[in-house]
């Protein structure tokens, strides 16, 4: 887990913290109780744009192979595939003073997450971004680490 303080590189100095988020990030690691659902080598993408849109996708790697074919997999295979994939989109905002980024979910693979706000403490270290839940006590020891792709 990345433990460094929020830092600003000389190339991003004066641009504000928001510009440090903008771009595409690849998943490096998941530290959480749910990480087992995504296997030993999960993959994922996190995208922030300058207009405050966010999109996240995380997938089990390797993806389970469906014996029933892609059109009509058996219910058990659908359940395994569902648990091994997570995606959502929405908007984002940063509270630089508190060191928190909040994702406002507009759509999600998990219907119960639509309309929720996911607040995450953030830490930049080199080309990596660590996000840790701040309002979910059950997930307070969780951390997703991302590496800048663009």
Give the helices and strands, then pairings.
Layout (H helix, E strand, L loop, with lengths): L16 H5 L1 E9 L11 E6 L4 E7 L15 H9 L1 E11 L4 E9 L8 E9 L2 E6 L9 E6 L2
Antiparallel strand pairs: 1-2, 1-8, 2-3, 3-4, 4-5, 5-6, 6-7, 7-8
Give an overview of the whole structure.
- The chain has two helices and eight strands, in the order H-E-E-E-H-E-E-E-E-E.
- It has 150 residues and is mostly beta strands.
- It has one domain (22-148): Lipocalin (Beta Barrel).
- A hairpin with an 8-residue loop joins strand 5 (100-108) and strand 6 (117-125).
- The longest helix is centred in the middle third of the chain and has 9 residues, at 75-83.
- The model is unreliable at 1-14 (pLDDT under 50).
């Amino acid at each position: 887990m990345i433990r460094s303080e929020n830092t600003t590189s000389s190339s991003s100095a004066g641009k504000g913290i928001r510009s440090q988020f903008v771009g595409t990030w690849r998943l490096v690691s998941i530290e959480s109780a749910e990480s087992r659902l995504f296997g030993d080598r999960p993959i994922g993408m996190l995208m922030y744009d300058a207009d405050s849109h966010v999109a996240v996708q995380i997938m089990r790697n390797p993806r389970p192979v469906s014996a029933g074919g892609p059109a009509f997999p058996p219910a058990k295979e659908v359940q395994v595939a569902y648990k091994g994939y997570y995606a959502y989109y929405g908007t984002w905002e940063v509270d630089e003073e508190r060191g928190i980024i909040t994702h406002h979910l507009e759509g999600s693979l998990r219907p119960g997450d639509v309309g929720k706000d996911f607040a995450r403490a953030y830490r930049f270290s080199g080309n990596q971004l660590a996000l840790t839940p701040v309002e979910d006590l059950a997930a307070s020891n969780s951390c997703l680490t991302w590496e800048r792709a663009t």
